[in-house]
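One such given next:
>
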Amino acid sequence: MYVAVRRYEGVTDSAEAARLVNEGFVPLMRRVSGFVAYYWIDAGNGVMVSTSVFQDRAGAEESISMASDFVRDNLASLLPNPPEVMAGEVVASA
């Protein structure tokens, strides 16, 4: 399995960001080949984190591209700073 993690700082309205992600982005993620799970986390203090889990690297990489496009087109005013993006193979799990 592969995971993509995106950490956003400076979120201006976490409730509205969560609503838009849930209504608009989650359905897109479910259509990506190899989709396993998606989580959007409110870490508090203007920080939100997304975690996308896929069966293969291609799905994780596609999710990074899709997230960038979705934020640009739908969340730019709520997520004004570029995210820290990490991706890689799952090497341990429980």
Summary: Strands lie at 2-9, 35-44, 47-54, 84-89.
